[in-house]
Amino acid sequence: MKKLDVFEKDILAAYEKGELKSTSPSKAELTKFKAAASATFLKEKRINIRLSTPDLMDIQARDLEEGMPYQTLIASVLHKFVAGCLIEPPSRLSPHLSGTGRKRRTAEG
Fold first, then answer.
1. SS in 3 state form for 33-93?
2. Which secondary structure element, helix H or strand E, spans residue 26, and what is its range?
3. Per-residue DSSP letter, 17
4. What pTM does this model have?
5. To pair with 76 at 20 to 30 A between CA atoms, which of 9, 70, 90, 91?
6. CA distance 84 to 82
7. Three-state SS for 97?
């Protein structure tokens, strides 16, 4: 099991003290959640992309960390990006930079 961060430790402590209470979503919230889930998993378009071999190898290694197929992982990352909530923790894996000396791009260039 991975090490818990401070936030997770606080939640666990509150749970163990019995401070957390279970609640049920309202019908409106449940309807909203169901609609969001349906929209998220609706896949009606197919695309083809070309990736470098090292990038594909890194993605396939990362899918093992995440516990999902690499195509699902790619779709998830793209969805998070377009939704404006792409915040991924750094991988424990070393990227394969294929000896090209490439740098990761930043907003500045």
1. HHHHHHHHHCCCCCCCCCCCHHHHHHHHHHHHHHCCCHHHHHHHHHHHHHCCCCCCCCCCC
2. none
3. T
4. 0.46
5. 9
6. 5
7. coil
